[in-house]
Amino acid sequence: MSKTDKPIAYMQRTRDYYLALGYGAPYVWASFADVPFTPLAKPLAECTLALVSTAAPYQPDKGDQGPGAPYNAAAKFYEVYAQPTAGTPDLRISHIAIDRDHTTAEDPASYFPLATMKDAVAAGRIGKLADRFFGLPTNRSQRTTIEVDAPALLALCRENGVDAAVLVPNCPVCHQSVSIAARQLEEAGIATVIMGCAKDIVAHVGVPRFLFSDFPLGNAAGRPNDPASQAATLAMALDLLETAQLPRTTRQSPLKWNGAADWKDDYSNPAKLTAVEIARRKRAFDEGKATAKQVLNS
């Protein structure tokens, strides 16, 4: 496997990055030996599916959240939410650590595949979508995800008569959060599939089904402005939802990123940063933490 074909080791990369910024003990990622697994109870064409996202509803009073926006801690959310699947919800991902050097989040369909899922319903591939989609916080506290966020998501899925769920993370911690949530949904009898870009994190947690797209973070639902890529990515996830026989079933999308070839070497790589840039990023990170704390306590 060539360097460009090998997935980014996000756990090691983020560990090295934050150590370079001057922070102490590395983050300990969640990991479980046993993985629950729930087969679909009926054909997908008869199922009600939920979409679970880590994207945030747009808040016009919270600063820049548009395409190419820098990290915006003020736009974070801290509780599971539900919004109608009808219409065209305005969700953004400026509040999380996507790959801002190689993607701009200009196309919501690359990280929030609601429209693509609606097309699958119209084609008869999916029975129906739940009346609401759900937002899951990007929470570094595994205890909060396990004890608060995942149970809240499960309650909403039950309330909406969900048979199965498609979970779409964005940043590294997002991948951990949705993996923990998927485990709880499966334990409760709801089949799940994760569409993501951080292979090592999802595998480390241990999940039932995972469709891996080797794209920059923020594009788990397909390449931006490429409806064919987005439809193909969802189709692969749905196939996996139907056909997986055992937990820890991972399939890799054959689709290739069509941007710069060096994106994997760039993401949060301290070896490519000057001392001045490292200091700037540390200041920005500290400011972001302070803003997030203020939002959480307000």
CATH superfamily: Response regulator
The name CATH uses for the topology is: Rossmann fold
Which architecture would the CATH scheme give at its second level? 3-Layer(aba) Sandwich
The shape, in one word, is: globular
The major sheet is characterized as:
8 strands, mixed
Strand content: 5-15%
Mean pLDDT reading: 95
Please identify the top-level CATH class: Alpha Beta
**What share of the residues lie within helices?**
25-40%
- Would you report the number of β strands? 10
Number of domains: 1
What series of H and E elements makes up the topology? HEEEEHEEHEHEHEHEHH
Give the low-confidence spans: none
Rg, Å, rounded: 18 Å
Oligomeric assembly: single chain
Number of helical elements = 8
Q: Separation of termini? A: 49 Å
Structural class: alpha/beta
Protein name: Glycine reductase
Organism: Sulfitobacter pacificus
Structure, described:
The protein is α/β, with parallel strands linked by helices. It has a single domain, classed as 3-Layer(aba) Sandwich (Rossmann fold), CATH 3.40.50. 35% of the residues lie in helices and 13% in strands. Strands 1, 3, 5, 6, 7, 8, 9 and 10 form an 8-stranded mixed β-sheet that branches. A two-stranded antiparallel ribbon has the order 2-4. Helix 3 crosses helix 4. It is globular, with a radius of gyration of 18 Å.
Secondary structure topology:
Elements: H1 10-20, E1 48-53, E2 56-57, E3 81-84, E4 91-92, H2 114-122, E5 128-129, E6 132-135, H3 142-159, E7 164-168, H4 172-187, E8 191-196, H5 199-205, E9 209-212, H6 227-243, E10 249-252, H7 263-266, H8 275-297
Parallel strand pairs: 1-5, 1-6, 1-7, 7-8, 8-9, 9-10
Antiparallel strand pairs: 2-4, 3-6
Helix pairs in contact: 3-4
